[in-house]
Amino acid sequence: MTASVQALTAEKPSSSLYIIGVLSIVSTICGIIIVFAYTSTALPIARNLAIITNEAVSQVVPGGQQNTIFAIQPGGEIKPVTGVGGSDPKLFAVYDGAGKLLGVAIEAAGSGYADLVSVMYAYSPERQAIIGFKLIDAKETPGLGDKIGTDPNFLANFNELEAKPANPGLAHPIQTVKHATKANPWEIDGISGATVSSNAVGRIINESAQKMVPLIERNLDQIRKGAS
Amino acid sequence: MSTAHQHQPSPPASPPEAAGPPASETFLNGLWKENPVFVQVLGTCPTMAITNSVRNALAMSVAVIFVLVCSNALVSLVRKTTPKEVRIAVFILIIATFVTVVDYAVKAVSIPIYQAMGPFIALIVVNCIILARAEAFAYKNGVFRSILDGFGMGFGFSIALLFMGSIREILGAGTLLGYPLFGANYQPWVIFLLPSGGFFTFAFWLLIFAWWRERKDKRAKATRPEAGQLEAAPQ
């Protein structure tokens, strides 16, 4: 204690070399701790991410027996990959026991009322429609905006939401309309009291589907074949 | 909000090691008498943001206790070799290291908890309770006492988060730790889950603590008969 009080009150400043030395040593110790933490948690983190993604995929495309993950390359081609890691956007193709394609799950995100809204939705090339939706992460207002993840009437929109591919994009843009005014199969019946959040879901899915649906149609043969 | 905390006055300096208060007092100070949230009013940003459910409050408490204890220990270990010119840089480096470790660990334990805590794990770096304890206590005290102080302040922070979190979850969602308490007919007061409800709850607890301290001071005065008699004597 006396030593540290003397050190604190000493007039003489420490030499630059000493300061650099201390900072280097402390940085090295901190670096070693971080590297150790990273290497020992990398595996469990990858496993957790895979579990979360698999659960979401099986919810948006129910009844699947096997999955193949495709990473989308910058040129628009797709390539089968083994894990959910990596920064390329991904398609999750779901097949039944006989290897028939049931649907393709797609991740999308955009700004909602409060923060980023991340969703997963499924596209069926056979029905040319969106056939499933799940809210992955959102910080929308509790009791109002957060209904986009729970309101059964709202979620029923995604049992069959038309997404016909055209060149380019979709034949009709997907959009959210005011509650109880839905007239077309490509419209989402909104939630009154959660207008901004339900509109955000429509916008996020539309922006993503405009790109992804034509891309899936272009690569459909490869997706149907699966990883083989 | 978090960075603004750094402009707040430092907490009362703890007694020097040489004066030798019992070790238990170092630990207990943080729990109640110098509670970092309700008495020192530090770290209010995570307190407001994370306490809309008890589960989040618990996760945040564990994270902060870990960072506080480890950073206090390491700061105390290097205190004699650290020149005072760069001590804050060294503190922040050490704190940021343990926050990074916690960030990985929470992700490895549970992704939903990680998502619920949002940016507030990374923001533990600027939680002024931790920097304040490094500067006011660990830089001046031995490793054992610094660890004790870390646990004390960490548990004090946890108590505050749990007090806040349970009120907000019970009133705002009608549940405790996710289990429904009131049956299907209960209409939750959603405002308690929103930031404004956080401020209401915080004000309520500050009021309770202020009232309790005032009452204790009055009692202490009343039980000091000599002082009272001396004042009363001339009349």
Structure commentary:
The complex is a heterodimer of chains A (228) and B (235). Chain A is 39% helix and 24% strand. With 228 residues, chain A is of the alpha+beta class. In chain A, strand 4 and strand 5 form a beta hairpin. The longest helix of chain A has 45 residues, at 16-60. Chain A starts with a helix and ends with a helix. In chain A, 33% of the residues are buried. Chain B is built from nine helices and two strands. In chain B, strands 1-2 form a two-stranded antiparallel sheet. The interface between A and B is large, with 32 and 42 residues.
Highlighted features:
heterodimer, A: 228 residues, alpha+beta, 7-stranded antiparallel sheet, two-stranded parallel ribbon, 5 helices, B: 235 residues, two-stranded antiparallel sheet, 64% helix, flat, disordered C terminus
Describe the protein's topology.
The complex is a heterodimer of chains A (228) and B (235).
Chain A: H1 2-9, H2 16-60, E1 66-72, E2 78-81, E3 90-95, E4 101-111, E5 116-124, E6 129-137, H3 152-156, E7 161-162, E8 175-177, E9 187-189, H4 195-218, H5 220-225
Parallel strand pairs in A: 8-9
Antiparallel strand pairs in A: 1-2, 1-3, 3-4, 4-5, 5-6, 6-7
Chain B: H1 23-33, H2 44-50, H3 54-78, H4 87-109, H5 111-117, H6 128-138, H7 143-173, E1 175-176, E2 179-180, H8 195-222, H9 225-232
